[in-house]
Design a protein that fits this description.
heterodimer, A: 314 residues, alpha/beta, eight-stranded parallel beta sheet, 8 strands, 43% helix, B: 316 residues, Aldehyde Dehydrogenase, Chain A, domain 1, 2 domains, five-stranded parallel beta sheet, three-stranded antiparallel beta sheet, elongated, Ald_DH_N (chain B), Ald_DH/histidinol_DH (chain B), Aldehyde dehydrogenase family protein (chain B), oxidoreductase (chain B)
Chain lengths: 314, 316
């Protein structure tokens, strides 16, 4: 179970029982964090800066489709869009495509030769309520099929029942199963109830070897909110001060407008600084966001507000 | 309102201490209304915070009242909600749209006095204000009737040289931007908007600049009718400032411009090229709006429909 990263995880103590790092995290002032997150959304961002921010948000986007009706055709189409979101040469490709494991080979094939990564949800997504070996097999299969990144879900039921060490062990085991693939840990903050538990879950995930922590599956409301993202960004900041390791952040779910995307970039900039404003350390999980960003970019270019009918749905 | 208040205070007995410093408290605090625009079924101020002032002849000191002064962003927000409302509105049965319009007439009837008073404050004599309000309500009833009938008038079965049924039916266009005439402020606005929504379109209307307040009072009646939010969006502001943005917007399908200055209308037509908007301009003299025969002609509905022609194989 020993995996790279983390602080002395899985080490056997003198009595033979395993010892764990300290999961404790500072408590979160709910009112303050919500106020600060909201305040950071009120910046007035002017033309050139706005365009730069929108282009950056496209480069950071995990273009996602996680539906039961996902077909090879739809995923191929989405891959085309991720590689070339718009005809304008200045619009960069997206960071990654995020799909279910079975569609990883399709995406891998469609994206061959491009910079766009393939991310796959795994570990019995979206609930995570399967046996550990089934979840690990899910991960290994997705990696074998070509996934560059694995988006795992934690067992929220176990966390709410207080089984923190089980969560830690499962993340560590998943990290090991990932091999070279990057691991994003989905906390599903909408089911955790309190910011304190979000902060603690972030701490557990980072200690267990997560490369990224991610807010949501997109299947639960509320999904990503600015406030919960700020809590996680602060956890990343404090983890960096304590260990020197840079962990990535991915808000996902409910991010639909260019304005929201810019809000998240401001949150990152103000909490973690420019070092995190790169697709290696910050991602936006979204499906409909891309079109709104493209519409705003076209609006800035032409001066006319755009119609959704002029942009491809997938 | 203000007059009534002053009458009451004049009759109220003042207490000794108040008489000393000359302050006589009113019997009631006056409750004045913040006029708001109607966008997506919500009452909103302008996101810009701007206001225009309109005269308030009912007040004693010649004070003015504030009405919102819509901005470019208000126009954009209104287009988004109007587009969102279009599918649902156009998707209703024609019969149901007629029922909803009739319900609007019921709501206006109940607010008849308030609307007439708004027109009076906008500068009309009492008798003309009452006549215009009545005509406006009747206009709603007329279009409620047309809602499920105009289709038959404009549809056709076309003879074609082949084994096909070929027929043409009118369909709604989408979001239509309207600049309402200055006068009549109420009947002109409704008279322009009703044929457009009867056809299943949704509307953003820039109210009369001569009397914007009446349109905002009308908005309160629109919001309490069964009309879904976003079908009629009422903005107050300057057409010269807002029309170019409406004309440029790629989500707006058509423009209906009343009494717009030729230079501004030309600019709007140029901006409308981007998505090949249909632009109709006209100036109707005030009396013609009251002519129910011409102003409730189904031809007015036809101005903002798209004709769809369908070929269907026939015979076996």
């Amino acid at each position: 179970m020993a995996a790279e990263g983390g602080n002395g995880k899985g080490a056997a103590g003198p009595s033979g029982a395993r010892t764990y790092p300290d999961f404790s995290a500072p408590t979160v002032d709910k009112v303050m964090v919500e106020e600060r997150a909201a305040a950071l959304g009120k910046r007035s961002i002017k033309k050139e800066t706005k365009v730069a921010g929108l282009l950056l948000s496209i480069a950071m986007m995990d273009l996602t489709t996680l539906e039961g009706k996902d077909s090879p055709g739809k995923v191929t189409q989405l891959c085309q869009k991720a590689m070339r979101p718009h005809a304008s040469p200045e619009v960069p490709p997206c960071a990654a495509i995020c799909v279910y494991p079975k569609l990883v080979p399709v995406a891998k094939h469609a994206l061959a030769g491009s910079s766009v990564k393939v991310a796959s949800v795994a570990t019995a997504f979206p609930s995570g309520l399967s046996a550990l070996d089934v979840k690990l097999e899910d991960v290994r299969r997705a990696v074998a099929w070509g996934a560059d990144e694995i988006d795992m879900v934690i067992d929220r039921g176990a966390l709410l029942a207080g089984e923190k060490t089980r969560i830690f062990d499962e993340i560590a085991a998943t990290k090991e199963a990932c091999g070279q693939a990057h691991l994003k840990v989905i906390l599903e903050t909408g089911e955790l109830g309190t910011y304190d538990l979000v902060r603690e879950a972030s701490q557990i995930a980072m200690l267990a070897g997560a490369d990224f922590i991610k807010t949501s599956t997109g299947k639960v409301t509320p999904a990503a909110t600015p406030a919960v993202t700020l809590v996680m960004l602060e956890a990343i900041r404090d983890f960096f001060y304590a260990t020197g390791k840079r962990i990535g952040m991915k808000p996902a779910g409910g991010i639909r407008t260019a304005k929201q995307a810019l809000h998240y970039l401001v949150l990152v900039k103000e909490t973690l600084g420019d070092a995190w404003l790169t697709p290696d350390l910050f991602r936006l999980g979204a499906s409909t966001l891309l079109n709104d960003v493209l519409m705003q970019l076209e609006k800035e270019r032409t001066g006319a507000y755009q119609s959704g009918d002029s942009f491809s749905k997938d | 309102m203000a007059r009534a208040k002053d009458k009451e205070t004049a009759g109220a007995p003042a207490r000794a201490d108040e008489r000393e410093n000359g302050f006589v408290p009113p019997a009631r605090l006056s409750v004045r209304k913040a006029y708001k625009m109607l966008v997506g079924g919500q009452f909103i101020r302008s996101e810009s915070g701007r206001y225009m002032q309109v005269a308030d002849p009912m007040s004693l000191g010649g004070t003015k009242e504030n009405v919102p002064w819509a901005s470019r962003k208000d126009v954009r927000d209104a287009v988004v909600v109007a587009r969102g409302a279009w599918d649902g509105w156009a998707g209703r049965t024609a019969y149901n749209r007629g029922q909803i319009l009739y319900r609007l007439a019921e709501m206006l009837e109940a607010r008849q006095g308030e609307l007439a008073r708004a027109l009076e404050r906008g500068g009309l004599e009492a008798s003309r204000a009452a006549a215009e309000t009545a005509a406006a309500i009747d206009r709603v009833v007329s279009y409620a009737g047309w809602a499920d009938k105009y289709q038959s008038l404009f549809s056709s079965l076309n003879p074609v040289a082949g084994p096909h049924f070929n027929f043409t039916v009118p369909e709604s266009m989408g979001v239509v931007g309207v600049v309402a005439p200055a006068r009549p402020a109420l009947l002109g606005l409704l008279g322009a908007v009703l044929p457009i929504i009867t056809a299943g379109n949704t509307v953003i209307v820039l109210a009369s600049e001569a009397d914007p307040r009446t349109a905002l009072v009308l908005g309160e009646a629109l919001a309490t009718s069964d009309l879904p939010g976003g079908v009629i969006n009422v903005l107050t502001g300057r057409a010269a400032e807002l029309l170019p943005h409406l004309a440029k917007h790629m989500e707006v399908a058509a423009l209906d411009l009343h009494e717009v200055a030729p230079e501004l209308a030309r600019k709007a037509e140029e901006a409308a090229i981007g998505n090949v908007k249909r632009v109709r301009t006209r100036s109707i003299d005030e009396a013609a709006w009251f002519d129910a025969d011409s102003a409730t002609s189904p031809r007015w509905i036809e101005r903002f429909v798209e004709m769809k022609t369908i070929w269907h194989p026939s015979g076996v």
